[in-house]
Design goal:
Two copies of one chain form a homodimer. Chain A has 137 residues and is mainly alpha-helical. Chain A has seven helices and two strands, in the order H-H-H-H-E-E-H-H-H. Helix content of chain A is 53%, strand content 7%. The radius of gyration of chain A is 15 Å and the shape is globular. Chain A binds a DNA duplex (30 and 30 nucleotides) through helix 3 and helix 4.
DNA sequence: TTTAACTACTTGCATTTTGCAAGTTGTGCA
DNA sequence: TGCACAACTTGCAAAATGCAAGTAGTTAAA
């Protein structure tokens, strides 16, 4: 990471948020943790389409620095770490939910993965509440 | 533009959305149009912190291609064009609103600009409805 | 108790994207 | 006819990204 983020801070709430997750991968990392329950580096890396390992490491570091997630040693497995969303990270649930609703409306092509869109369409508030509580949607 | 978007399409709704506005500037362009009523190239360029002119042109083109906005000649001024959000673009209002709510909660530093956060906090659904209707929040 | 395998990264380098400054095109106005 | 405005385009340097390979600490097997 060369920059410390917040190059563009302007006081605008949208700009503040985009400073933190306004890139290609950050929200996907958050989604994988919130929606799919990914907790380790390996789960995040092999979870999907394919983020480069160096970019994943960089994003995890940034997201930790900005308080979206925290990192701790796995008590069960000494060679593994566990990444967990903080309340600040889990509170992005409504953002994920609204994005999913929007995509469900306009992406007529296949909606695959976890059926997250379906869940949100069926019970948006329940999904948000569960993620906020640290549970799977 | 070198890429035609959708490099990462995976069927996931979040990934679909990020293909369209998952970068540093797209959502800020949409915000300026939806929240601040920006309609011309010049208004978008001088609106804020400073997007490069070539990047702005590229983003407008991509957003037009993906159906978020449309471009037409200004009947009042032959040397100007008018950019307008489509329904697909205006339907991003809930995403903007939730981002603003999240930022209002976690960005203790100054919230400036239009007071969008305040409006959303006071009347989220009203703000969303007005943007969806093509009006200012 | 060496050896292999796992897990989480780093490093180097080529490619792509971004940002900045300057230039171009097509009106409209004096 | 000349100048200014509005919307871009172009060229190039800087930064971010992607890919492949390598490193470090830990565990588990031989």
């Amino acid at each position: 990471m060369t920059e410390k983020h917040s190059k563009y801070a302007s006081g605008c709430p949208v700009a503040y948020a985009l400073d933190i997750f306004g890139d290609r991968w950050s929200l996907l990392v958050i989604r994988d943790m919130a929606v799919k329950g990914a907790r380790t580096y390996g789960e995040l890396q092999n979870g999907w389409e394919g983020i480069s390992t160096n970019i994943l490491a960089q994003r995890l570091k940034q997201l930790e620095e900005t308080g979206i997630l925290s990192k701790s040693k796995d008590p069960q497995n000494g060679r593994s770490y566990i990444y967990t969303l903080t309340p600040k990270g889990r509170d992005l649930a409504p953002v994920l939910a609204e994005i999913a609703l929007w995509s469900a409306r306009y992406n007529k092509a296949g909606h695959a993965m976890t059926g997250f869109s379906d869940k949100v369409q069926a019970d948006r508030n329940g999904v948000v509440a569960r993620i906020r509580a640290g549970k799977l949607p």
